[in-house]
Design a protein that fits this description.
CATH architecture of one domain: Roll
Low-confidence stretches: 93-98
Distance between the termini: 82 Å
Largest sheet: 6 strands, mixed
Shape: globular
Strand order of the largest sheet: 4-1-3-14-17-18
CATH topology of one domain: Pdz3 Domain
Structural class: alpha+beta
Mean pLDDT: 87
Amino acid sequence: MINKIYEKTIKFIKEEYIFIILMLIIIFLGFYRLPYNIYVGGGIIDLKDRVIVSDSKDLDGSLNICYVKSLRGTIPTYLLSYVFDWQRESINDAKVDENDNASDMWKREELYLEEANSSSIIAAYKLKGYGLKINKELLKVLYLYKESETDLKIGDTIISINNTPLKEFSDIKDIIKDFNIGDKISIVYERDDKVKEGYFYLKEIEGEKKAGLYLVKLYDYDIDKEINFKFKSSEGGSSGGLMTSLYIYNKIDKDITKGRKIVGTGTIDGNGNVGEIGGVKYKLKGAVKSDADIFFVPEENYKEALDEKNKNNYHIDIVMVKTLKDAVEYLESR
């Protein structure tokens, strides 16, 4: 029985080897990862469906995040991007662990969203001026450098290094400054709600002494309202930070939407600084399709958004913002 199966298999391979080779080439082309994200379209989401703030009134207008539909960068999608005018965004993979996989990539997107939500609350409350107490910063592993040697994984929260508790990001440099390249340093970290002990080796990376980790900063805080996020499992990333923070500000302080449909994009940090994003022309297109009145955009993306508006004769106000405060002052003044 086994011999017959073997003989049939060999016969099939000999007769259909060209087909088999072509199939292997197609599979390779379809799955080989290129260092690009390919943006193909966009839309908006009303934040009232994603952010629930206790003891707050409904807004007169609406505040919306915008998103892009993206494809994984492969050889076919990369070539098709030239045919359909899809946007290609290069990814700097130079420092990422070569064993990075799809699970790690999605976990990273979830961390970006978690960071954006945490920073959105802090920035909104800082601008409000009261009702906030920051207890400490939470540092989670976002990337592992190729050179890193550690038992940490993406998503782990570092509690202490060399028996010294971490309260803020700058603590790490202070702790490792007295160690040498090649030293093994003990750490305590949290993974899946369990506290574990581990290590990392100090490495020379990019000409500097580093732990081989890239961390994302979240916050442990107390606030005067309860805020819950209801983002879907398929939604990730940090580009909704500005609008999430603006929405929270409108709910905890005063509503300045004035009946307008407001859309925007941009990252946010705990001090309210707005950062660059990708796929802005597709996000703008989604805002226009939804009949938005205002489109907030980071300084770095403003020219591209304005050029796209002029090119397509869009009827929408594009407003450049560097900080959350800029967006608030614009809405208050109009």
